Amino acid sequence: MTEPACKQTITALAAGHILDAPPLGACTIGELATAWPGLEAAEDNIGTLGRDGSEVSWRAVHRGIAGQVLRVWHDRDRDRVLVIELEGPEPPEGWPALRAKLGAPSHKFDVFREVVQLGEGLWFYGARGVAAQTSFAGERLHRVMAFPPTTADDFIAHLAMSLAPPRERSAG
Q1: DSSP assigned state of 112
Q2: In this structure, is residue 171 part of a structural domain?
Q3: Residue at 100 is within a domain
Q4: Concatenated DSSP letters for 6-52?
C-alpha cells in the first residue's frame, strides 16, 4: 500500500467514516506514524492479538478523532501494521445507519467484556477487512477494527480481541 492509501485508511477511520476507509493493505508503522498527528510521538506499548496470543506493539492517540482511542497495532519485528482500531467510535451517521450500510456480517462471534460474555458481540466482515465489536445486543458500537481482508479462521487466530474468557486469578 502506498503512503497516500495508508493515510486515507487512517484518516477515514479517525473521522469515524468507516465505510470510506479502504481495506488495510501493506503499511508500516513509519508510514502511518507520519500520516496522523501525535502517532509519531506516541510510545510503543505491548499487547496481544488473536487466539494464538501473539505479542505485538501498539501506539495510540486520543485527540482529534471521532472516538475515544485510535490504536495502530503492528508487528514488533518488521513494523508491519496489522490492525487499526477505533475504540468508542462515533460514526457521523450513527451506529444504526452504519450497521444498515454494512449489511449482514459474514460471521458473528461471542466476545468477553471484562467478565461478561456478549453473545454474537463481534461482527466480522472478512472481505471488507472490518470487524465491529458491539454491546447490548448489537445496539451500541464499542470498537471498529480495520485489517487486510482475511478469513474468519485467520482473523480469530491472529487478529481478534476479547474472544477468550478472562483468566481466573489464583487465590493467593
Answers
A1: E
A2: no
A3: yes
A4: HHHHHHHHHTT-GGGSPPP-S-BHHHHHTTSTTTTTSPPEEEEETTT
Q: Strand 140-146 and strand 130-135: pairing?
A: antiparallel
Would you state the cell numbers that stand for residue 41, as one nine-digit string?
510521538
Q: Each residue of 18-64: pLDDT tens digit?
A: 999 998 888 899 888 888 889 999 999 999 888 878 899 999 999 99
108 part of a folded domain = yes
**Count of domains for the chain:** 1
Which DSSP letter does residue 86 get?
A: E
Question: Which residues form the domain of 106?
Answer: 3-158
CA dihedral 155, 144, 13, 66 (to 10 degrees): -160
Alpha carbon 64 to its chain's center: 18
57 C-beta neighbours (distance < 10 Å), count: 18
Coil, helix or strand at residue 5: helix
139 domain residue, yes or no: yes
